[in-house]
Write a structure and sequence with these properties.
Layout (H helix, E strand, L loop, with lengths): L8 H8 L3 H13 L3 H16 L14 H27 L3 H21 L4 H27 L1 H11 L1 H4 L6 H18 L1 H8 L3 H30 L11 H9 L2 H28 L7 H21 L4 H32 L1
Helix pairs in contact: 1-6, 1-11, 2-11, 3-9, 3-11, 4-5, 4-13, 4-14, 4-15, 5-13, 6-11, 6-13, 9-15, 10-11, 11-12
């Protein structure tokens, strides 16, 4: 049988990267202090290392991952929809229901476009990576040039010392929860990771490590922007508005709208790429019931938000991620019991 060529880092990173990285890393720093970005990066690298032995484990085929992948896709869609709604409200001052409508329509359009025009796959992947890389390089530098590194540190030291010397209560729990969440996300993507490593595990693992370092660098770059925003004493109604309001305050209208529109399109691309990845996974049974459950799950979370508006991007990431982690652990336990039962018979 002809051996398939290993997937490139472009494909892998397009699975890992999303606009939500900017919002999640920023809110983690806001809640847990300046060191929280490093905690988030360390948790991801630990989870990546824990997944390495599983890439060679053939018995994982006994673990049912269909529903795990469904929850993974639901989390991706919810995060991107939430961020898309936030962005379009900032851009056009839409009412929340109008913002939700156009965001959902845009997501459906990009998803159907990619599903039926597969030639756009590489373009979508490169566009998303270019957007994330470009913004990770430009935005932190632009923001710090506007205020000055020494000024930012002075304001933190004298007016926001809590951010530098944050009480570490809860940081250990956050670390272990993030390890579980990242591990479950990587576990769901094991078929993709195996295609990246190929048959040459040594070289393949090096590719995964390089990808992990790149991911970590991007997260740290985005998390530093939150530190600047805190020193600006901005009046915001919700922590979700922190990043857009920082850009509004420190940049020209042209830069502000260009960045936010780029991010908005990036949410559509991420949903489309994730949905196509989900379809490419091996599935047991018909896809139709799973897609119905996916739609209902997204609506159950999204509709209350449109009325209450109390969710944060980090809350969605942690709550759905914790659920995904719990289901992953249960799947392992059921698989273990099943294997032991078969051996005893």
């Amino acid at each position: 049988m002809k051996q398939e060529k290993p997937l490139s880092l472009t494909v892998l990173l397009s699975n890992w990267f999303s606009i939500s990285m900017l919002f999640i890393s920023g809110e983690v720093v806001l809640r847990y202090g300046a060191k929280a970005g490093f905690v988030m990066v360390l948790a991801f690298l630990v989870a990546l290392i824990l997944v390495f032995p599983l890439l060679k484990e053939k018995r994982l085929s006994n673990v049912s991952t269909d529903w795990l992948r469904l929850f993974w896709l639901m989390e991706v869609i919810l995060l991107q929809l939430f961020i898309g709604i936030i962005l379009i409200k900032e851009i056009f001052s839409f009412a929340i229901f109008e913002a939700a409508f156009w965001t959902i329509m845009g997501s459906l359009f990009f998803t159907l476009l990619l599903k039926y025009v597969k030639k756009l796959l590489t373009l979508f992947e490169i566009s998303l990576l270019s957007l994330i890389f470009g913004m990770a390089i430009l935005l932190p530098n632009y923001v710090y040039l506007q205020k000055g590194l020494e000024t930012v540190y002075h304001n933190l030291l004298h007016y926001h010392p809590k951010l530098l010397h944050q009480d570490q209560t809860g940081i250990n729990g956050l670390f272990f929860l993030l390890v579980l969440i990242f591990f479950s996300k990587l576990f769901v993507q094991i078929p993709v990771l195996r295609q990246v490593t190929g048959s040459t595990n040594g070289k393949g693992f090096r590719k995964l490590i390089i990808a992990g370092i790149i991911w970590s660098t991007i997260v740290l770059a985005f998390s530093t922007m939150t530190i600047v925003s805190i020193t600006q004493n901005m009046t915001i109604v919700h922590s979700n508005e922190l990043v857009p309001e920082l850009l509004r305050k420190l940049s020209t209208p042209f830069i502000f709208y260009t960045v936010l529109i780029s991010f908005y399109i990036g949410t559509f691309i991420k949903i489309a790429l994730s949905f196509l990845t989900f379809l490419d996974f091996p599935h047991k049974g018909s896809l139709s019931p799973k897609l119905i459950y996916l739609t209902l799950g997204c609506l159950i979370v999204l509709v209350p938000y449109l009325y209450v508006k109390e969710y944060t991007v980090l809350a969605i990431f942690l709550y759905v991620g914790a659920l995904l982690s719990s289901l992953t652990i249960l799947s392992f336990l059921f698989s273990l019991v099943k294997n032991l039962t078969m051996k005893n018979q």
